[in-house]
Design goal:
By secondary structure, the chain is α+β, with helices and mostly antiparallel strands. Strand 6 and strand 7 form a beta hairpin. This is BTB domain-containing protein.
């Protein structure tokens, strides 16, 4: 049971506490505050979007295993995917990946990191995921994989008989995710309403804004190019 505010499990935790001192500690601890719950809504939304694949507009088939995804998410998080969707994979809804060095398990981990900023992976697939991260130019994932692999090896050396089987790779905070997905928000706005975004030093907008939008809202003559996945809950 999780000690969350305004939930049955939260109250059950408080009720089951051994004494008043423990109950007071639980009430005072940040985990039971509604603020923390609101803060966790964003990663929970990304988790559900990744796991349920609602409104997915592309399917990767890796050695006969299917992975449904959203072009807008992958393009916002990876320049590699963005370039491929606008060039080699333009207009394609199914993409076959048959390279022997790309394992379905590692590809799943790559997608999970792009969506959630974290991934749990078996040590046997670390090299495969590292190779994919390098191919897709996902620097943060490459760095974190190297750091965690080193820490796991060091831990095993200092604890004889201990064997690390799984690693959890995650970003230190959600600022990177918020920044990347914030691009989708800017692109949804009409050009005259949005702030400039982009890597160039000059304030030029990309030629095509929101290329993967799948729904347009018209409000008082203003057109907002959005993604259905953004409204999934």
């Amino acid at each position: 049971a999780k000690c969350e505010a305004n939930t049955f499990d939260g109250e059950r935790c408080l009720y089951g506490a051994l004494n008043s001192e423990i109950r007071n500690l639980l009430r005072d601890y940040k985990v039971v505050s509604s603020t923390i719950i609101r803060r966790e809504l964003y990663p929970e939304f990304l988790r559900r979007l990744f796991e349920f694949s609602e409104f997915a507009d592309v399917c990767f088939i890796v050695h006969d295993r299917k992975f449904f995804a959203h072009k807008c998410v992958l393009s916002a998080r990876s320049d590699y995917f963005n370039d491929m969707f606008l060039d080699k994979w333009l207009g394609r809804r199914e993409i076959y990946i048959r390279h022997e060095l790309v394992s379905p398990y590692a590809f799943h981990g790559l997608l999970q990191f792009l969506y959630q900023g974290r991934v749990e992976i078996h040590v046997d697939y670390i090299d495969d995921l590292q190779r994919l991260a390098k191919q897709c130019k996902i620097t943060t994932l490459m760095q974190r994989l190297e750091e965690m692999a080193y820490k796991a090896q060091f831990f095993e050396c200092t604890k004889p008989g201990t064997k690390v089987t799984n690693l959890v790779i995650e970003t230190f905070d959600h600022l990177e995710l918020s920044s990347d997905f914030g691009i989708l928000t800017e692109e949804a706005l009409p050009l005259y309403m949005s702030n400039w975004i982009g890597p160039s030093e000059l304030p030029f907008y990309p030629e095509e804004r929101a290329p993967f939008a799948d729904v347009i809202f018209c409000v008082d003559g203003h057109r907002f190019k959005c993604h259905k996945a953004s409204f999934f809950s």
